[in-house]
């Protein structure tokens, strides 16, 4: 989930070659009559190994089709290639996307909607997902994605430091203050017992990190932004400014480091020098490997409302002018298989989207994952728009607009006005992926 670098692009290319080679080897043992399903995704590292294991299990469970995955570098290159494949008639049978990117693709005809009756035949219905996750799959009334998980922005905490600070409740869980004053007081108690800071939160030069925490705080005011195409962005100025002020308050060099980068924040918490770490669930394995005595939960409702920023890895049907209906049937079967097998996916920290998995007693014994599973009921995704979502320039632009206000503690109103103007300018442009809106030249 980190921004792309030259190294990650190169690794992505190597991963593609390796995945293709491995798929070819695996295919040698399958029935010659099995249909080959092309599945594109961007999952690498531990996530890549886990999804491949689930795919291998699906291949071994039947002989009607064989899934041949292609792994591409995550970010703009992936989404550009997927859009070009859909527009050019060379789309794979199935692909992975972040749910937040789907609103930019579905209106342009780059994705085909899922048939709810066919999903139900495979045991997948709306009732199997939390409200926020299911709502994230819908664009203009149709379901265009099926979520595998939710990966929220959460709080990891060092149980030894927090216990010494007296901020754990009777169940040994971190307290959940619901006012700014109580929250800052708790943070200062933790700071008094930490070798480093109360909170490790890396943000310098990291637009996505700033947005994840900001939009969590913004939504905790009980509101969300709306970005109507061709209209004016609906943004609560008071909530916007209040959220930035809180972000500035926590980087006072007591609660949090005013010069923290994402990497330095990870290092501080991994070394046991801070009491809390705000990050994505994908860092859970890193901290477990580091041996940190930890637990996890959602960021407390600082402004009174439960809300947590998140995105989801989802499955989509890239548009095909004349889809092979038998292959489409295989795609439905595969997605249902992966959803029902997603307990293993939780090992990476993600919350399985399929409720029968998280409601199973086995999952409730998975700690600390089970301790933030309730986040699935309080997720907030990027405001739906063609330019928002994971890996988009939107997050980078946000960081550039608000960074100075967060670090200096001034210019909050100006940052709000600049952000409003920036979004309004983008909303006045056509969606470049939607041919009905014309060119964005």
Automatic annotation (TrEMBL):
Signal peptide boundaries: 1-23
> Would the keyword Cell membrane be found if you checked this record's keyword annotation?
no
**Matching SUPFAM superfamilies, A to Z?**
Periplasmic binding protein-like II
Q: Does the keyword Cell membrane apply?
A: no
Entry keywords, A to Z: Signal
Q: Do you know which Pfam families this protein is assigned to?
A: SBP_bac_8
- Supply the name of the protein: Extracellular solute-binding protein
| Organism annotation | Candidatus Nesterenkonia stercoripullorum
């Amino acid at each position: 989930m980190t921004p792309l670098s030259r190294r990650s692009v190169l690794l992505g290319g190597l991963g593609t070659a390796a995945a293709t080679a491995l798929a070819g080897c695996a295919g040698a043992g399958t029935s010659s009559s099995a249909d080959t399903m092309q599945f594109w995704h961007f999952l690498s590292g531990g996530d890549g190994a886990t999804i491949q294991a689930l795919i291998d299990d699906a291949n071994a469970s039947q002989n009607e089709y064989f899934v041949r995955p292609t792994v591409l570098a995550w970010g703009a290159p992936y989404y550009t290639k997927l859009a070009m494949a859909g527009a050019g008639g060379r789309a794979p049978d199935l692909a992975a996307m972040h749910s937040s990117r789907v609103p930019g693709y579905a209106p342009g005809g780059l994705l085909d909607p899922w048939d709810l009756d066919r999903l139900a035949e495979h045991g997948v219905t709306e009732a199997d997902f939390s409200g926020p996750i299911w709502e994230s799959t819908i664009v203009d009334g149709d379901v265009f994605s099926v979520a595998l998980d939710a990966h929220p922005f959460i709080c990891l905490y060092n149980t030894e430091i927090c216990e010494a600070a007296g901020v754990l409740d009777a169940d040994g869980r971190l307290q959940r203050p619901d006012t700014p004053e109580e929250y800052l007081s708790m943070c200062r108690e933790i700071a008094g017992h930490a070798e480093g800071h109360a909170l490790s939160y890396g943000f310098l030069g990291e637009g996505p990190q700033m947005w994840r925490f900001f939009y969590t705080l913004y939504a905790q005011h009980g509101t969300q932004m709306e970005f109507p195409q061709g209209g004016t962005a609906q943004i609560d100025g008071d909530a916007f400014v209040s959220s930035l002020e809180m972000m500035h308050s926590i980087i006072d060099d007591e609660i949090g480091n005013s010069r923290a980068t994402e990497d330095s924040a990870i290092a501080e918490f991994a070394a046991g020098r801070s009491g809390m770490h705000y990050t994505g669930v994908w860092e859970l394995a890193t901290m477990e490997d580091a041996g940190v005595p930890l637990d996890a939960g959602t960021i407390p409702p600082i402004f009174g409302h439960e809300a947590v920023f998140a995105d989801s890895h989802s499955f989509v049907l890239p548009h095909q002018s004349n889809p092979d209906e038998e292959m489409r049937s295989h795609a439905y079967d595969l997605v249902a298989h992966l959803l029902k097998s997603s307990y293993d996916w939780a090992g990476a920290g993600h919350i399985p989207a399929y409720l029968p998995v998280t409601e199973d007693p086995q999952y409730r014994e998975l700690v600390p994952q089970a301790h933030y599973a309730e986040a699935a009921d309080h997720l907030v995704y990027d405001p739906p728009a063609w330019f928002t979502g994971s890996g988009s320039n939107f997050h980078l632009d946000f960081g550039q607009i608000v960074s100075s206000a967060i670090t200096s503690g001034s210019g909050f109103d100006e940052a709000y006005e600049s952000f409003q103007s920036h979004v309004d300018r983008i909303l006045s442009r056509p969606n470049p992926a939607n041919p009905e809106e014309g060119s964005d030249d």
